[in-house]
């Protein structure tokens, strides 16, 4: 074997060893995210249990309140968030394939779609505020008091605000990595971090998928 071939073989072996070592160093980041998400599942799970208990006690009130939500805006937001999740997945895959420049546009797209989601939710909040659906002394459903309806909207505003907060964090992370991706060094480390951000984003997406029917599809609409 020539000296050049020997050096090339040694370099390949060293490169493989470095890659394995890098992977071992990066695994804790993904493990840490899974542990964090497990805690978030318990947190949102408690809110879902509270919803189930309240709905069992006030089925008519929850149905009446749900009928006052804007199912079209909710459906549009679901489509927007699912699209953003796809963009994050493509960006994370590009980053893991050591193509950070290809990942950046998809991360920007995901962040932009997340902002669109929040804007639509803001429009929905304003509409509900103007209709007197915010919990308080003047809360009414079609000018009358309905047992459980105010409780539904108290839960609705709490859980959607928490979801929006989590989404806002995801947007900031996507923007940060979109800015850093074109100059990331070494790119593989950055790719793993983008993958971790994608896990977080998909969790936020899954939470909304559970929220959508609980908020907008409680009862048939006329």
Would you mind describing this structure in some detail?
This protein is 82% helix and 0% strand. With 222 residues, it is mostly helical. The chain has a single domain (28-216), classed as Four Helix Bundle (Hemerythrin (Met), subunit A) (Up-down Bundle), CATH 1.20.120. Helix 1 (3-57) runs parallel beside helix 6 (187-216) and helix 3 (71-96) runs antiparallel to helix 4. The longest helix has 55 residues, at 3-57. The protein is elongated and about 60 Å long. Mean pLDDT is 85; it is low at 3-25.
Q: Strand percentage, roughly?
A: under 5%
What are the low-pLDDT stretches, counting only 5+ consecutive residues below 50?
3-25
C-alpha end-to-end distance: 81 Å
- Per CATH, the class reads Mainly Alpha
- Please provide the ordered H/E string of secondary-structure elements: HHHHHH
Assign the structural class, choosing from mainly alpha, mainly beta, alpha/beta, alpha+beta, or little secondary structure. Answer: mainly alpha
* Tally of DSSP β-strands: 0
Q: Mind telling me the C-alpha Rg?
A: 23 Å
How many individual domains?
1
Q: Output the CATH homologous superfamily.
A: Cytochrome c oxidase, subunit III, four-helix bundle
Shape: elongated
Give a quick account of the main beta sheet: strands, pairing sense, barrel closure.
none
Portion in helices: over 70%
What is the CATH architecture annotation? Up-down Bundle
Q: What is the count of DSSP helices, taking H or I runs of 4+ residues?
A: 6
Mean pLDDT: 85
CATH topology: Four Helix Bundle (Hemerythrin (Met), subunit A)
